[in-house]
Amino acid sequence: MSLHRVSARVHGPLSRLTWFLWYLAVLLIPLLLTWHVLAPPDTAPGGAVALSAGLVAYSALVVTAALPARLPWLIASFGIETVLAVHRLIALIAVVLVLVHLVAVLIFDPRGITILDLAHTTWAARAAVTSTVALVLVVVLALRRPGRQPRYEGWWLVHNGLVAIVLIAAWLHVWWLRHLVSDVLLAAWFIGSGLLLAGLAARRWIWLPARAGRFAYIVKSVAAVPGDGVTLVIQADGHPGLPFEAGQFVWLKIGSTPFVFEEHPFSIASSADHPDRMEFTIKALGDFTELLAALRPGRRVFLDGPYGGFTIDGLEDAAGFVFIGAGVGITPLLSMLRTLADRGDRRRGWLIISARTRHDLMLVPEVEQVRARMNLKVIEVVSTPEPGWTGEVGRIGQNLLARNLPRRPHRLHYFLCGPAPMVTSVSRDLVALGIPHRRIHTERFGAV
User: Which positions, given as ranges, span the membrane (predicted)?
Assistant: First the structure.
């Protein structure tokens, strides 16, 4: 990877439309090609249902595998939370289509239930049974997903192993049904889809870790911060640093090699103008954050990234910014503020941060340091005030926003980060105040 700065803001409506058309093509082209090759008189109605459901199910599996493959432009276009939500939705669609395909085959295939007799059936049928059983196990494990707890990594390992079995067996099933790939175009399509999946897997599990190994960092300090958090500071180890845009995030890996399986996504809290020194503030949740707190200076860590389009990059003509965060959602906002301060940006800014109590407000000293360097108004909001509290009380809502924003708030850009309910609620309040949707940028924590 070169060390030039790569802009994340090349991803507006046109980019999202382009991605949508690509995925629509992946879903439908094999179906259209098949019906071009197989004329309607050649296929009975029941067979047509089985064939169509199977082909679209296979295509949906390909899309499902491609979505979480950490493609930077895709994540920047839609946001990681949207990418993963669509991934889960299309996975459910694929499961339904596979079941429709299986039922139609059992009803309309002359061999009936005997097609499931693995000892005497065809290799295509064996591959289909293997893929279907693995897919059912994926669904069962997904329903029992433990969350980011000690056994999460084991669950993730099994999940990815089963997904690999599903995809390989599904591809072999299609390939061994020779009449589906007897046409040159169809054969080229399915070979291409297999190469695409293999390439995405090689990139995700080989190339990205190898790149992370080239850009290792050294732990400089680890310190507890108010709000039940841990701040980790790392320094580039023999390189100028991994370029990123203010507001982006990386997957952090701790281990003797970048090929370790356990990794967690964290927003960068430091200035994008100094990629050689990165800072993260992480909420104390689970065993991984306990591991972070136990890190000692000199330990090597590895980063996969940067990712995301939640960034001020490309908004040089904006009149000003409003940053709204709750809890640890302050971290990407602090990165943006520090970057603006380092660049001597004198545009007006507003920072609205909320927590349950004053002691739960995170990174207050760091915010004060930034406020001294730029034209920034800070509004602190607590839901449970203590005696003597003179700031805002309650939640960030329409009335609070109306009191603290300037006369023409529609000229500003708004960056919201925090728990999903807060981000959704405040977004609605901003729209009610006349803020255009295109000026509201969001990132929801807890989606990955």
Answer: 20-38, 44-68, 89-108, 123-143, 155-178, 184-203, 318-337
Positive or negative: CA dihedral 119, 121, 127, 130: negative
Helices 184-202 + 13-37 axis angle, to 10? 140
How, if at all, do strands 348-355 and 277-283 pair? unpaired
CATH of the domain at 407: 3.40.50.80
Q: Considering 191, 211, 231, which residue would you say is the last residue of a domain?
A: 211
DSSP annotation of 393:
E
Of the candidates 274, 279, 268, 314, the residue with the CA atom closest to the CA atom of residue 417: 268
- In the three-class reduction of DSSP (H, G, I as helix; E, B as strand; rest coil), residue 391 is classed as coil
Contact 34, 180 (CB under 8 A): yes
* Adjacent-strand bridge partners of 355: 382
Please state whether beta strands 249-254 and 320-326 pair in parallel, antiparallel, or not at all (unpaired): unpaired
Q: Which domain holds residue 29?
A: 13-211
Return the closest-CA partner of residue 322 out of 304, 337, 338: 337
Q: How far apart are CA 383 and CA 310, in angstroms?
A: 27
Which residues does 390 contact at the CB level (< 8 Å), separation at least 6? none
- Domain assignment present for 393: yes
What pTM value is reported for the model? 0.83
* In a shared domain, residues 237 and 197: no
Average pLDDT per consecutive 10 residues, the chain (448 residues; last block may be shorter): 37 68 78 66 63 85 90 84 86 90 81 73 88 91 66 79 94 85 82 92 94 93 84 94 94 88 88 95 70 83 91 87 92 96 93 90 91 93 88 90 88 91 92 91 72
Contact 245, 311 (CB under 8 A): yes
Closest among 403, 341, 422 to 376, alpha carbons compared = 341
Q: Sheet of 300-307: strands edge to edge?
A: 264-267, 249-254, 300-307, 217-225, 229-236, 277-283
Is there a contact between 360 and 327 (Cβ–Cβ < 8 Å)? Answer: yes
How many domains is the chain partitioned into structurally?
Answer: 3
Q: Distances in Å between the alpha carbon of 294 and those of 226, 253, 280?
A: 17, 15, 15
CA-to-CA distance for 186 and 24, rounded, in angstroms?
17
Given 278, 307, 336, the domain boundary residue is 307
* CB-based contact 181:174 (threshold 8 Å): yes
Tell me, yes or no, whether 193 lies in a domain: yes
